[in-house]
Specification:
- This protein is an alpha/beta fold.
- It has three domains: 120 residues, Rossmann fold; 108 residues, Rossmann fold (3-Layer(aba) Sandwich); 145 residues, Rossmann fold, CATH 3.40.50.
- The protein binds iron/sulfur cluster.
Length: 459
């Protein structure tokens, strides 16, 4: 028993967090920054923070994640980190030659109160930023929010620093995804591309953190959204915020700053949410849905109909990030599963996640969100009412093992399996992968648990 100290029976807590169901803001900010072409993320804080942010992303993506640090010591911790970051900017442009440095703050630099706007202005005045190069920043205090908040803040910083309204409108649609896998970003682009929609996606980490191996190390892989494309995002005909928590701040800012109409969509996981996404593209971009996409949808519907008896009525508990949870709950309902628990460590604020989850699942579903909603609480909940399947990140493996419940790994981080950065969950093709994974887990379990006389050869 790895977690033998977790008692049954829920204890409400107001201060203590045990095994958080989230990571820290700069992890998300660093991930978003990687979605800019030739951008080096920079962590304004201690070396330890940066080491953690990089290692979290490196372990999840199995690719080396580049990032630099202001390397605070005792002096910077007391007097502020301006001198450190000014020296860092010179060193980074000299040694690593990025086009953009994307600075995220940390708990320490936020507590000190370093003013990044003023520091970046000073760097420009001191001619530390070469012509044609940029330094941008996002405030990412990790005593608030989570990696999703940090991602959203850095995506908004891209708009703040680069987007312009030149009054020369064009037909492109801005696609701003929440914190999702590069494979899912590719899948969203695939849907838009098949429909003939002209788009700009940012952040876009596809072909940055899931590159192919060709024997050549590239500090800046060929993927990532170009700065010039974000500049023109202010003249686009519309913005799609794909996932409210992770994408809305950037999309709202684009609306406020450049008057680009905003559409808020759920992440396209499963049939219902993908239908809504495809329909929104169709109506806003005035395009038709091609046969290729109808085919993809039809295949998913076919497997759903064939195998519904294996998912119908199965109980599931989910933990993870709000945007992914919402669409995963919808998908679970689409395939007839009964949702018992939904838990996120990310505070959801005004995002009416609980109401939407209850709308889909009924009043009995247990919903928890916020800093004290941690893995300890999640295990207490699943001990009280045991599901047939848990969906969550790698950290759920201990409670799954102790309670003999199968785990479908979704969300962030996933350290102990591979494939998530290459194989999507989104779109109709991603829905197929997801459904096949769920079916395999449930049918393996049925095979394992069946009495000898009930083992079926053909399922
Ligand atoms: S100190 Fe703050 S920013 Fe640094 S790793 Fe810890 S939570 Fe993240």
């Amino acid at each position: 028993m790895l977690l033998r100290h977790t008692p049954t029976g829920l204890n409400e807590r107001s201060a203590l967090t045990i095994n958080p169901a989230k990571t820290c803001q700069p992890v998300g900010a660093m991930y978003a920054a990687l979605g800019l072409h030739r951008c080096l993320p920079h962590s304004h804080g201690s070396q330890g923070c940066c080491a953690y942010h990089r290692s979290a992303l490196t372990r999840h993506y199995n690719d080396p994640i580049m990032g630099s640090t202001s390397s605070f010591s005792e002096g910077a911790s007391v007097f502020g980190g301006q001198a450190n970051i000014l020296e860092a900017i010179t060193n980074i442009f000299t040694l690593y030659d990025p086009d953009i440095i994307a600075v995220n703050t940390t708990c320490l630099s936020e507590v000190i109160g370093d003013d990044l706007v003023q520091i970046i202005k000073k760097a420009a005045e001191d001619k530390k930023i070469p012509r044609g190069k940029f330094v941008i920043h996002a405030n990412t205090p990790s005593f608030k929010g989570s990696h999703v908040t940090g991602y959203a803040n850095m995506a908004a910083a891209m708009v703040q620093y680069f987007a312009k309204n030149t009054e020369k409108k064009h037909r492109r649609i801005n696609l701003i995804p929440s914190f999702i896998e590069p494979s899912d970003m590719s899948e969203i682009k695939h849907l838009a591309g098949e429909m003939g929609v002209e788009y700009t996606m940012f952040p876009d980490t596809s072909d940055v953190v899931n590159t192919s191996m060709d024997g050549t190390f590239r500090m800046y892989p060929h993927g990532g959204c170009r700065r010039e494309w974000i500049e023109t995002s202010g003249d686009a005909q519309a913005t799609f915020a794909i996932g409210r928590m992770g994408a809305l701040p950037a999309a709202k800012l684009l609306d406020t700053k450049c008057k680009v109409p905003l559409h808020i969509l759920d992440l396209p996981i499963g049939i219902t949410a993908t239908d809504a996404f495809v329909n929104a593209l169709r109506t806003v971009a005035h395009v038709a849905v091609p046969d290729s996409i109808r085919e993809e949808r039809g295949k998913l519907v076919d497997v759903l109909c064939d195998m519904n008896q294996y998912t119908y009525g199965k109980k599931v508990s989910l933990m993870g990030d709000p945007d992914i949870l919402l669409s995963m709950v919808r998908f679970c309902r689409d395939i007839g599963m009964e949702v018992l628990h939904v838990l996120t460590g990310t505070p959801v604020g005004k995002f009416k996640l609980e109401e939407r989850v209850k709308e889909m699942c009924g009043p009995d579903v247990v919903f928890r969100s916020g800093l004290q909603c941690d893995l300890f609480m999640f295990e207490q909940l699943i001990k009280e009412n045991k599901p047939d399947l848990i969906m969550g990140n790698t950290y759920c493996k201990y409670m799954c093992r102790d309670n003999d419940i199968p785990l479908l790994r979704i969300g962030f981080p996933i350290y102990d399996r591979i494939g998530h950065s290459y194989v999507p969950l989104m779109g109709y093709r991603g829905g197929m992968h997801l459904l096949l994974k769920i079916l395999t887990i449930l049918m393996d379990r049925q095979d394992r648990d069946a009495a000898e006389e009930n083992v079926e050869l053909i399922m």
